[in-house]
Design goal:
The protein has 313 residues and is of the alpha/beta class. It has 16 helices and four strands. The chain has a single domain (16-312), classed as 3-Layer(aba) Sandwich (Rossmann fold).
Length: 313
């Protein structure tokens, strides 16, 4: 394994992974933001605990390991004390993780344009003052002295789309077209590895029970299809919205969301179309071609459900 890429931003630090003590059988959920992360955590929890009653809030069972709203000692202690099968959340791509043969890596993709729209709503719903205060309480703010505050959002959604497309890749950014596709590319490069499996937001929507069955098989969780069919409705968006206070990510000591249920906004696809022109869409396709291979681009936008058997391998 080569040198790990360091992904560090105001709110994240991937170097925590180098100090994390893995256990055989750990499940690492590695996704770009707004790509089905919480959905996948919910599926793991339902299967591991064989039902919708969990011993703690979902975020306490599967905290985002490299997010800086908890101290390193706190988040490591949470995972260290767990006796159940561990499923660990991260938005760090696989090239920033110390890959182990005895750990299962689940990479989840989504059309990057839908990621962008969902991310904007996500940021609008976030209470940034509370989030920054949690970071200050956890690790302080002294390391931010050289950071410039982010510019205000561009008011024109069409311009925001173009900025998303034309951005250059940076390990400090979470949601741009290059960062989303790079994350998926790190999974795609390992798709033939026995301990890496790719899932897709659209495939969850098309056949959730089938994808749960594939996830259970990959993670060696003993649960049959009949039971998965009973569990699947608990992972529906309406049901998760009803349980938002138990499921949304954050910190049990404070509230990060203006509307917790709004975290599960719609799960819709294609909203980006209304903010783009034909030229924007053509440039998007051109940019994707610059960044990734055709096979990866097809999977990133359509999932495995629309690929031929030879393209799935």
């Amino acid at each position: 394994m080569g040198e790990l890429v360091t992904y560090r931003s105001v709110m994240t630090d991937s170097e925590r992974w180098e100090r994390f003590e893995h256990r055989p059988g750990d499940i690492v959920i590695s996704t770009p933001p707004k790509s089905g992360t919480t959905w996948t955590q919910m599926l793991c929890a339902l299967m591991i605990f064989d039902g919708p009653r969990f011993p703690a809030m979902l975020d306490a069972l599967s905290p985002w390991l490299d997010m800086l709203i908890r101290s390193e000692d706190e988040v490591m202690d949470i995972y260290d004390r767990q006796t159940h099968r561990r499923f660990i959340k991260t938005h760090t791509p696989l090239d920033g993780l110390p890959l182990r043969d005895d750990v299962h890596y689940v990479v989840v993709g989504r059309d990057p344009r839908d990621v962008m729209v969902s991310w904007e709503h996500h940021m609008d719903n976030m209470d940034l003052e509370v989030l920054i205060q949690d970071r200050a309480d956890a690790i302080g703010l002294d390391d931010l002295v050289d950071h410039e505050p982010p510019p205000p959002p561009e008011p024109d959604p069409a311009v925001r789309f173009r900025n998303f497309v034309e951005a250059e890749w940076s390990p400090q950014d979470l949601v741009t077209l290059p960062t989303v596709l790079h994350h998926l590319d790190t999974g795609w490069e390992h798709r033939d590895d026995d301990n890496v499996e790719l899932f897709h937001f659209l495939d969850y929507q098309r056949d959730l029970v089938g994808e749960m069955e594939r996830l259970a098989r990959f993670c060696a969780i003993d649960v049959d299809r009949e039971r998965l069919a009973e569990l699947a409705p608990e992972a529906g968006i309406d049901r998760m919205r009803d349980r938002a206070d138990e499921i949304v990510p954050g910190n049990a000591k404070s509230e990060h969301w203006k509307d917790p249920a709004g975290f599960f906004r719609s799960g819709a696809t294609g909203e980006w179309f209304e903010r783009t022109t034909a030229d924007d869409r053509a440039r998007y396709e051109e940019r994707v071609t610059e960044l990734v291979t055709d096979d990866l681009a097809r999977w990133a936008h359509e999932g495995a459900g629309r690929l031929s058997p030879s393209q799935k391998s």
